[in-house]
ABC transporter ATP-binding protein (Pseudoalteromonas obscura), 235 residues
Amino acid sequence: TPVIELTNVSKVYVSENVETHALTNINLSIYKGDYVAISGPSGCGKSTLLSLMGLLDDISSGSYKIEGVDTQSLDADTLAELRNLHIGFIFQSFNLIDELSVFDNVALPLIYREQPLSQSDITQRVNRALSQVEIDHRANHKPNQLSGGQQQRVAIARALAGEPSILLVDEPTGNLDSKNGDAVMAILASLNEQGTTICMVTHDPRYAGYAKQQVKLLDGEVLQTQSEVNDSDNV
Ligand code: ADP
Ligand code: ADP
């Protein structure tokens, strides 16, 4: 079963009687262990695709399954549950809370989970996530005592601590200089080598190259898909 399976997915935004066809007939399957980069110029539908995959917005037509579960006609609570269970988000902005330590920032979503975890489970998960991104030595620092690259690693740890089925990553290097950007990309690549499934959206072809599979969008349609093994196969 694919982690994520989109079949003929379209998204149409309607505002003030104007229709925008943001995505048209997208077919995309992401399997455990994949690292997919979705790239394309501004306005091609990258953010829309990520928000559909992250259950932040509804598809207009087609079918979207996550871990084999059809997401159509589920109520908001069930969608929120699926999102918490399966999705880890990483954004361009780190969205860390300045008043909390690194440790507490990573622990916070675990504390507010539907199914409560024991304190020792939380501690274990947070420490493991912090070492996965090599920031455990800064657990007691506040976010503003860290470099941008370190803050993004904390944000990655926060996503990992939820033990999601997939990391959805949106322009992770957008706020970073190239040195810190490269370091964050290296961390994502090493997480993927250890088995983490990743789908990343970027307009930067250089960073897309870190992924194992490439999906190129143009005007809301898949222009090309490519993996390391197969040179090219069109969806
Ligand atoms: P990208 O992330 O590749 O820049 P987007 O997914 O943000 O592209 O946008 C795809 C298209 O959908 C664009 O034409 C954009 O203007 C439009 N769009 C995005 N969000 C909305 C919205 N909330 N309402 C109306 N149109 C939208
Ligand atoms: P990295 O270790 O990710 O390459 P830097 O070389 O930018 O990060 O930072 C080295 C050290 O300086 C870090 O351990 C960090 O704690 C500290 N530091 C970096 N930037 C800032 C900042 N803007 N404010 C406070 N401390 C910082």
